Amino acid sequence: MFRAHVSLQEMVMYLLAFLIAITVHEYAHARAALKAGDDTAKRMGRISLNPIDHMDTLGTIMFVVTMLNGFGLAWGKPVPIDPYRFKNPRWDVLKVSIWGPLSNLITAGVLAILFRFVMVPMAAVNFVLLTAICIKFNLILAFFNMIPIPPLDGSKVLMSLMPVDHARRYEMTMGRYGMIILLLVLFTGVAGMFIVLPTRILFHLLTGVPM
Predict the structure, then answer these.
(1) How many structural domains does the chain have?
(2) Domain range for residue 20?
(3) CA distance 94 to 33
(4) Which of 44, 138, 169, 204 sits 20 to 30 Å CA-CA off 193?
(5) Residue 3 lies in a domain
(6) Which residues are marked as active site?
């Protein structure tokens, strides 16, 4: 997903982009959960735009390690929710789940406006590059999280749309094999079908330049 042998400067930019994308993503989950009636995330300090509140130490270290090998694998700290506190559990779980990826798409759109229409001096080429990387990261995170395999958001969206009995069977099956399936999807390259092509297409549409 990223080219091998990135420079230190590029790695810092990728790390900043990751922190921005994951912060927006988790904040959106926490805010949506509060609006749906669950204040668990609020009580745990997760309605925050401070990246430290959403960082997972192992996930961040893994990002740095994998970036050294030309790709990025990372995760943030999941937002805790209690669906029993929701006013309409099935519908609210769907809304809370989808707001994470949606927030990344919105962020990518806003940054694309800056990228395309805000004039910056040539000396600010690093700012332009960082903006492009942030757009890419937000798109990647959005599409990745919509893969319908737990613990990703797409699985919760799918289960919310299924008939209750089908959703329960899906949850039981994925509870046993979900992580194995997810690892296979990641390391066999199957995830690329869900992430790389749509990211490239939307990045081009938003910025006007190929990824």
Answers:
(1) 1
(2) 8-207
(3) 10
(4) 169
(5) no
(6) 26
